Amino acid sequence: MCLLKIALLQISSCDNIKDTIKKGIKYCIEAKEKDADIILFPEMFSNGYDIYKRSFEEWKKDAILLDSEYIKTYQNLAKELEVSIGITFLEKTNTLPKNSIVLFDRFGKLVLHYSKVHTCDFSVEANLSPGDDFYVAELDTKKGKVKVGSMICYDREFPESSRILMLKGAELVLVPNACPMEINRLSQLRGRAYENMLAIATCNYPKTVDDCNGHSSCFDGVAYLEHLEGSRDTCILEASEEEGIFIAELDLTQLRLYRSQEIHGNCFRKPSKYHLLIDEKKEEPFIRKEFRGNL
Q1: The domain spanning residue 225 has which CATH number?
Q2: Burial, 23: exposed, middle or buried (Cβ in 10 Å; 0-12, 13-18, 19+)?
Q3: pLDDT digits (tens, 9 = 90+) for 192-237
Q4: What whole-number distance in Å separates Cα of residue 90 and Cα of residue 1?
Q5: Residue 130 counted as domain residue
Q6: In this structure, is residue 119 part of a structural domain?
Q7: What residues make up the domain containing 207?
Q8: 8 A C-beta contact, residue 46 and residue 64
Q9: pLDDT in tens, 240-270
Q10: Distance spanning both ends of the chain, measured CA to CA
Q11: Comparing C-alpha atoms, which of 39, 117, 125, 116 is closest to residue 74?
Q12: What is the pTM assigned to this prediction?
């Protein structure tokens, strides 16, 4: 049995980036003491996803470069602690900022750099530049190698996100988040894990952060086991609303055996029938007419 321990840091950021870095380091050390193999932060931890109460001209100044001290600190920490760290930030680019995550392996090597594809363009996130694609990387942990991808918050609303990651070989999807995780959003994550036979670990902010409520979670995607009658609950962790470190223990051996035997994922898809999914029409049903962004 290979139990991969994923630490979800359900914590708030501080008023400035230096204190935020210090707090993040403290919690990473505590997660390592709990034998974590992977550590995940909530969405845009570098500024606490503080983009709704300030103008774009103000919060875009929070954007930082990929080679910033903030990023390098967690890269060095991953190497020092010998643990993988997924750190999130508002990324500075030559155009509009991006909502990004970088994942370092236990040697401090950057193995994944992903920017949110489905930006919330009905809100102030219309001021962000969306990511270009979904990526999967082979992550080296002390428990062995695992194929990891990422979605960020609103990406969860689109089944195409996790489906593409599944098709690219992902076994585990890391999801930084910043919104209320209620029954419907949790159900989305459960569904994405079930239909793609992969694990999804989501890290949210605690209830002390505006418009967030904790409930970080992990669904292992394994719906059926031979020794159980009927289906099982794929939720292996749902956190409380409070700030803290929550550890999900993912049985990779069980997940891989399940993927080799079950019928979901890519087994019986019919891609030749899905043309409409890539037909980008200007007039589509259910387009929201009201625009709340501030471009």
Answers
A1: 3.60.110.10
A2: middle
A3: 999 999 999 999 999 999 999 999 999 999 999 988 888 999 999 9
A4: 38
A5: yes
A6: yes
A7: 3-278
A8: yes
A9: 999 999 999 999 999 999 999 999 999 999 9
A10: 51
A11: 39
A12: 0.95
